[in-house]
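Input chain follows. Return C-alpha cells only.
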Amino acid sequence: MAFGKLAHYSFDLVLISIILAGIHRNTGLVFDTSHFSSVDFRRWFGNYLAFGEKMYDQTVSLLKLTGYFKQRNLVLDYVSNQAGKYLKEQTGRDLNEFPKKDL
C-alpha cells in the first residue's frame, strides 16, 4: 500500500511540474522562488521546475510523433480565412477553384 501511495504522489508531482512548465511556455509566467528563505529549497525547486520543462518537451515531441495531433498557427489560419472571404467577395470564387502552381 505504501508503494502505491508513493507512486501516486510522485506521478502527481510530475504532472504539476508539467503544468507549471506549460504555463511558463504559453504565458511567460514563472514561479517566483525568491519567497523561499532556504537556498537549498530554492535550488531543489528550481531543479523540480527544470524537470517539468524537460518532461513537457518530451511529452510534446511524443504527441507530435503520434500523428493524432497537428500544429496550428492561429494567426496564419485567421489571415487565410479572411483572405478567402475577401477573395470570395471580390471574384465570387473560392481559393480552391484557382489552379495551384508549384513553387
